[in-house]
Design a protein that fits this description.
Blueprint: H1 9-13, H2 37-47, E1 62-65, E2 71-79, E3 84-91, E4 98-110, E5 115-121, E6 129-136, E7 141-149, E8 178-184, E9 190-195, E10 202-207, E11 214-216, E12 226-231, E13 236-244, E14 247-255, E15 268-275, E16 278-284, H3 294-303
Length: 308
Amino acid sequence: MRVYCLVPLAFVGCGLFGSDAPTPSPAPDVVPPAPTADAVDAVDTALFASACDGAGPSGPVQRDPVAGGAELVEISCEWFAYQGTYELWLQPAEGEPVHQLNRLGVGSLDEATGQWTNLEKARGPGDCGVFERFAITDSAITVLETREQSCSNGDEAPNIDPNTWPLVNPSDGCEGAKDYFRCEVASGKVVQLCGAEDGSWMTYQFGPAGAPELVYPPDRSPSQFNGGQQMWARAQADFIAFNNADHQYILVDKIGGAPMHEGEVNNFTGVVVKKDGQEVARLGCSNDPQTTGFAALAGQLQAIGYND
């Protein structure tokens, strides 16, 4: 009888290699390839199909990391001659993405500050229009400041840097409390005083809109301010002050009458800083100040004995 060995499996079965037959090597682990950019775009396009009024993204979806492990999702909708429409969403570390805002303009993320800016151009050169700055957290995108520059007839506006355009509505550091005093000084920084309706607490802030350099007191502790009023035949000065270490800060709103300071015009609204009784800084408002309720609060503080 003839026996046929099949190649290659039958060789082993027939004992041609005996006990020294080599052991087959295990198959290597298979690592799936990373998804391609096209595959990622396809997933995002499907995920954000409801964006742009149901039209979906018009191009690749941009993602940038933000605080708390979340991602800022930037979706382009339509592009026109020199700006376009887009949407911003927040993708939390866990859960579904949440739509935050729609804008027309040119938007960008400032990686140094983590803030988003948008320039809505009134015309091609971008020398006039509306400029906004936004704060971004892992759960919300909020407006810090809005600046607006009107267009001049003919030539381009001389001030083309939107960061220096007139401030429209600075950051509301009052967080829902009453805004008693707010204005921008020559450096572009904002002076602000806000507090409770009854004056039981107040907070003074000074610095760039949305990122104050000085906040006093840092919490809503009982009022540590004093106030007062001075009146003359044709003038009135209202002030609210506080002491911080060896400095005294005095918010002043003076209308009419004789100058309070040599070389000063009759009207002065701003903040005066003193150290050891000597004036070291005087910062006047460079735009129209918001002082609604300031005079009444100054009189109230004087009446209840806060004025020293």
